[in-house]
User: Fold this.
Amino acid sequence: MKKTMGFFTVTTVLIIISTLAVQVRSDGSDHRYKARDTVPLYANKVGPFHNPSETYRFFDLPFCSPSHVTEKKEALGEVLNGDRLVSAPYKLDFLVEKESEVVCKKKLTKEEVIQFRNAVTKDYYFQMYYDDLPIWGFIGKVEKDSKSDPSEFKYYLYKHINFEILYNKDRVIEINVRTDPNALVDLTEDKPVDAEFMYTVKWKETATPFDKRMDKYSQSSSLPHHLEIHWFSIINSCVTVLLLTGFLATILMRVLKNDFVKYAHDEEAADDQEETGWKYIHGDVFRYPKGKSLFAAALGSGTQLFALTIFIFILALVGVFYPYNRGALFTALVVIYALTSGIAGYTATSFYCQLEGTNWVRNLLLTGCLFCGPLFLTFCFLNTVAIAYSATAALPFGTIVVIVLIWTLVTSPLLVLGGIAGKNSKSEFQAPVRTTKYPREIPPLPWYRSTIPQMAMAGFLPFSAIYIELYYIFASVWGHRIYTIYSILFIVFIILLIVTAFITVALTYFQLAAEDHEWWWRSILCGGSTGLFIYGYCLYYYYARSDMSGFMQTSFFFGYMACICYGFFLMLGTIGFRASLLFVRHIYRSIKCE
Assistant:
């Protein structure tokens, strides 16, 4: 036990130390400027507004480019996020105002006109960063004038950008961008056109302090009407959960109490009386499951993902993932997943040895590949798609090498160390009753007691507790909405865990009462079935609530959401099994079995 506690303590310390680097804020540079000082302005990316994964380098479109384009060095998380920052063609020196400054005069060729027109048709936006503050704007507009035929539409490119910058003494506080609706380049016809790109810069003083400059980006999700919806979501979830769990708890406690009284009476009345119900299968209920190596690997992976989620929530609640802290979440996910692999190794191997498994090395390999394997295959396919599209979502070779090195030098060794610690823990499986030599035959059961209907019942209740909050998360991850109310999300997560545990326990009891002793795998499948419901919600969100389109965006959405839902399946399946195991041990410890 001491070895176990020591192992987890070391893992926790490693995670806390490693995430200190993640907590360094992008706006923490605390730049102070003098008049006419150069303030860094980087152009990031362009892409269709409704396809958040489909982004391209800024200069993939034939904008005016500076004579020497310099690329900003980026952290791992920024690259994973698809950021590719390069020096922008505009000069926004501190406190220097400009009026209709010409960036360049350019004759757009027929091919460039078509390229810009296609971009305008798809609602392309641009994104830049000025002193680490984000800027967005659309590159053009389509005038339809109540016409339904696309061939009659007018296509225009904005050629004049107005920058309004707010400052407080020697610091940049805020930047706003407007495009001049009257300064347009007509792209309607397939012919070369002359374009003169310009920009205007205005400076205004503000009293907003520097440490509050990012607040405006988080306020959108904290507006009163948004908060009302979030609190309504939580109250709805709590009421649903309290009513249903209270109802189930009352039934379960009453039934269990009657069972205990009945079995105690039966023992006093007649020893040779035939047992029925869940007591009847006491000799089989702790019989080890089939596929014990895969079972232990699923528990190990699920426990690791649960630990990862808890650490991410801790970082979110202390304020690390504020809006536009570029790549912080991706960096944290990669680092913490690598460092928690020891938890997976320890949990899987120790439980596998408790189940009297012998080939612990194979079990450890299976644990390492159970989640990483599908994720790696999905990444390979999607990265190939991104390369084919020349999108910024395609990871450079150097970044792939870094991730492989992290997996080789951190994840794998910690997984092995955890496995060795688990093997040496020599803990035995705690079963309150003896298992018989030969298993009892399971009686024929009605169709609704089979695995699939039980999974459907088990997944519906936890999903109903989180589905309102899911929309906001999806709109943030797969859209441009900002999500910062992590405290509410954490409450919803806790509700999800409680409901998952309770519904799995209830279904396990009903399964045992029907004299079906094969509850081990069923508890994981029922607990994890919420992940399948979330994937079902993905289909609804894609077709009914979003405007995403195209092969790349569709494959990214369904590919990565499949991995996330699979992770939820493993994590919640582990929660379901652990709750069921505690319950089954408790009820069989409470009765006298021969």
Notes: Residues 224-269 form the longest helix (46 residues). Residues 2 and 22 are 31 Å apart (CA to CA).
